[in-house]
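Thread: quick sanity check before group meeting

JM: Hey all, I'm pulling together slides for Thursday and realized we never actually wrote out the predicted structure for the chain we discussed last week. Dropping the sequence here so it's in one place. If anyone has concerns about the input, flag it before I start.
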Amino acid sequence: MSDKLSHSQFLAIDHITQYARTRKFEAQKSLIEVFQMSNIPWSTFEEARTKIFSNARVALHFHPDRTIADNKSVAQSLLEQGIYKSQFETQYIASP
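JM (edit): ok, ran it. Output follows.
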């Protein structure tokens, strides 16, 4: 799969992967506490995770009217190029 990714897509995935890995232990610890307080067995979480991984779909959310780096709208660029590009590729930075 990695041979089909653009450089910016690879960097985005790598960034998120590293971010998640550095926080996994603390997140799992918090989940375990919540499950214990709720009297839910950890196996319920594992079963749900397995089902999500095997059945989940990806949804892309974007604002077609926003202007990106080339001063075109997201919709116009999508129509012209025929491919969806992430913020990493378009270098769009949302206003605060």
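AS: nice. The chain is about 60% helix and 0% strand. Residues 7-37 form the longest helix (31 residues).
JM: adding both to the slides.
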